[in-house]
Predict the 3D structure of the following.
Amino acid sequence: MKHLSLSMLLLLFSIFTGFGQSVKVIDETDLQPVADVFIFSSKISSLTDAKGWADLSKFGKNDTLFFQHPSYVYERTTLDAIMENGGIVRIKEDLIRVNEIVVSQNRWEQDKGEIPNKIEAIRSKDVNFYNPQTTADLLGLSDQVFIQKSQLGGGSPMIRGFSANRVLLSMDGVRLNNAIFRSGNLQNVIMLDPNIMDNSEVIFGPGSIIYGSDAIGGVMDFHTRQVKLSTTDDAYLRLNALTRFSTASLEKTGHLDFSYGKKNWGMLSSISFSDYNDLRMGDKGDDFYVLPVFVRVYPYQDSVMQNTNPNIQVGSAYSQVNMMQKFRFRPSKTLDLTYALHYSRSSDIPRYDRYLEIQDGIPKYAEWYYGPSQWLMHHLGAELKDTTPIFDRLRLTMAYQSYTESRHDRKLGQTQIRERKEYLDVTSINIDADKTISDTKELFYGLEWSTNRVLSSGIGRDVYSGELSQVSSRYPDGGTLYINSGTYAGLKSRLSDKIALSIGIRANYVNLNSLFVTKEFFDFPYDQIQISNTAFNGSAGVAWHPVQSLQFNMNFSSGFRAPNLDDVGKVFDSEPGNVIVPNEDLKPEYALNADLGVIKMFGDKAKVEITGFYTFLFDAMVRRDFTFNGESYIMYDGEYSKVEAIVNADQAIVYGFSAAINWHFINQLYLRSSFSASHGEESGGIPMRHAAPMFGATHLIYQTGKFRGDFFIRYNGTKTNEQMAPSELSKVYLYTSDENGDLYSPGWYTLNFNMAYQLKPFLQINLGVENILDKRYRPYSSGIAAPGRNFMITVRTSI
């Protein structure tokens, strides 16, 4: 009995001392472990691992411990208090974002307080709370990026009056813009899986120093979840799953990811699937948005049907699957290797805005859809951390991407459907390095090279007999080689405790070579188009803190966009009655930009940020009337069409401002609000197409314990007829009329609510309703009406 009592005492002592030597840090709301929390006292420090655990054995019993993480409120406690709480410390998310860290500025982590650019970060916790359907909707969570949709399976971001191939997409350091990114609204961002994003950042304004061509209006930089390694002998295991349902499109989404990590290697597997029915619009609003008829395609017959429920946008349904597989190997403390395979495939995606075109009282098209879009990327990354004479950190990023895209259209009553397909292979390499020169100076430099190979074909297929014939391809049918390269260098210098200076320069070289083989449809006066361009860009900015709570930012930068294949070699109807033809004389367009911003902190209770900008675009590539073999009109697909081309024929200015406030004003109650306004015009005062109306959102957030709720309003201003671009006014099927009978885009607002409750550490439920008032509206430039009242439920589990 004596020996048994002694054994129990020893066991209790070991349990107590075990708690005393370690702590687990978890999020107060979702109860999930928080990695990379810096724990320190006056002399000692520790860091939490992937499971939220940290060693406290070196701390004294009377020490005061501080818990610090960029995304959480600064916390302090004692070792005794930790023991009384069972070795658990709960930390609260910092909704004010006092000490924000960003990566996209120069591809390395930096304190936002030293960056002169406006950068907005979208954290994974925001994604988990709001549950965006697509990555385009994920960008919309910033409330400072305007999203246009031509169809349900779409989402074209507009940033500061620019869109499509004038803004740049990047994921895990890999350029996603390619040779066939078009100037019209572009939906490629939805091929990325929002459920696997760790964090995402938006750079506002030119980002050409780091990212090269296309980064005129801004950069959207996505970072997928990293493979976590174990810091103990036990393996790191993690399983995450979610299922989501929403009523407006009868959405059914499922996601599963699994992580496994040992000390020096690990893996992450992920799969997501989403299925959407035809989208239901709101019931209260302008009847113009209701389409009373649609086309049903039967064998050997097209039938125009009455829409028995006009709020249902028949022909908008689609589905999509995304997969990712990552492996990580860390052979030493200085070298980290990662391989990732990304795959995305959609179903046919109906081009819903084309179904709105009515001719002689009936729909113009029986079928108009994008064929299954497929994207595959192999990504190999290596990061070396070692102090050498030329770098402290060096990162190598190599990628191979394969795209398959197609467009299919057939007019009502015709038997032949045109099927135009593009096959694109992209290989790229990036080398990025940084070097600390002194306590106050840090150097960044690198190079980029990407090669695009494009094949384009056109086939006509009789939908009844199956007979095939050749039709004109979208791009030159002999193939295209497109090379995009550049090298850059940047310097960050802390001139004093209050001033940080950032400067950079980049040299670019872009080459395009396209071959025309078939001249059956168009008698091109040349056999190939070959264009070579060089460009130089620079930036200079200052972040000034006259006092700790106040920051002024001033930044001057330039950007450029070299003509790609879609600009130079496209033959495609831009709208009914017009056809774009190639232009071998096209040159790059350039932008000069100035930003002025101020950030004011009011303790840890409030943060106000205001930024103004002015961008001047010259040698702008715009669509203008043109001639083809001396003719202003040609026959194109059986229709006598006016000839147009992309030319360097214009200058443009875009200016505006954005304002945002985060305010923790009463206990667990937060206010977050943002507003953006921009004005863009080409020479002669002609409005720019992608300058969005003023827009913004205001959120009232209540967060306590395991509950978080958000009641918010989203709103858009009106685009009057005078503010509309001529190319938009020609789309009479998209816009309603004002009291004078002139086309315009009405303003709108919606009331919305979202909540999350952590039932168990492994189980969370999210409920939400958007467009509570069931308003019927269509966002500016969009081809599909927004969802009506939409109830959403998401169940998440993490084990």
About this structure: The radius of gyration is 28 Å. The helical segments are 2-21, 79-84, 124-130, 135-140, 208-211, 352-355, 565-568, 726-729. Confidence is low (pLDDT under 50) at residues 6-20.
